Amino acid sequence: MVGLLDAISNAAEWDEQISEGNSLNEREEAVLQALELLTRNADELVWVKGTDLREKIRTLIGQSADELGNAQWIGHILKRLQLIDQSRRKHHVGGKLYAIERREVLDMMQRYDVPTVYENR
After folding, report:
1. Euclidean distance between CA atoms 72 and 53, whole angstroms
2. CB 90 within 8 A of CB 97
3. pLDDT tens readout for residues 94-120
4. Rg of the chain's alpha carbons, rounded to an integer?
5. What does the alpha-carbon distance between residue 93 and residue 13 come to, in Å, rounded to a whole number?
6. Element housing 105 (H / E)
7. Could you read off the pLDDT of 55-103 as tens digits, one per residue?
8. What's the pLDDT score for residue 70?
9. CB pairs under 8 A, 24+ apart, for 108-111?
10. What is the dihedral sign for C-alpha 34, 91, 25, 101?
11. Packing angle of the helix pair 26-38, 50-61 (nearest 10 deg)
């Protein structure tokens, strides 16, 4: 029950931020930037492994895996940003797969003025 109340409270805070036009927090921005990087060479739907997404976010934020915590929050952010739903999420042997539309990621980045990241290779 406490977890449910926390989730409701967090959702309400997030809705309030969005309605007030506030920018996204660091993790939310990193999720969008990581998705943009992982879908950069795609035209359509891309199935992204949750573990790959988490590692890309970790690199962008510069935190250790322990500091990042479990990856459950990633799914919550993807749902809040309306990038996934039940039909665009599935389980696989190594975790979760998310069906991501690149154009939707770019749209959210533009809406919230999230800068594009360019990696040095």
Report:
1. 12
2. yes
3. 889 999 999 999 999 999 999 999 876
4. 14
5. 34
6. helix 102-111
7. 999 999 999 888 887 778 899 999 999 999 888 999 888 889 999 999 9
8. 78
9. 108/32, 108/81, 108/83, 109/32, 109/33, 109/36
10. positive
11. 120
Residue reference for tokens 């690199």: 59
Statement: the pTM of the whole predicted model exceeds 0.85: no
Q: How far apart are CA 97 and CA 78, in angstroms?
A: 12
Q: What domains lie within the chain, and their CATH numbers?
A: 22-111 (1.10.10)
Length of the chain: 121
HSE of 74 in the Cβ direction (CA atoms, 13 Å)? 26
Q: Which two tokens mark 64? A: 């250790």
